[in-house]
Amino acid sequence: MAAPITREELKQKMNAREDFVLIDVLSRESYHREHLPGATNIPFGEISKDSVSAIPRDREVIVYCANFECTASPAAARMLEDLGFTNVIDYEGGIADWKEARYPVEPGRR
Predict the structure, then answer these.
(1) Average model confidence (pLDDT) for the chain?
(2) Domains along the chain?
């Protein structure tokens, strides 16, 4: 089961420029509106062996979705573990929790 991470722990990892992959599992529309700095978008329904093939299986991967009630990131974390990832972390608070702390978000990229 994926380990959880708090927004403060995630912010510290970002500030320290730790090596991890941050995946936004929300829709492309949501991602294009705003997302956490440095996040890559792989919508939940598109997670597959092919969509994550470029990520080494032992790399730290942090997934997030909308908020604490959102079930997409825990499900995505389980899928990634099923695909062989060994270091998956779920940021359960998602973008709503991040913004609540007034941490920066990036505008959408196309």
Answers:
(1) 95
(2) 3-107 (3.40.250.10)
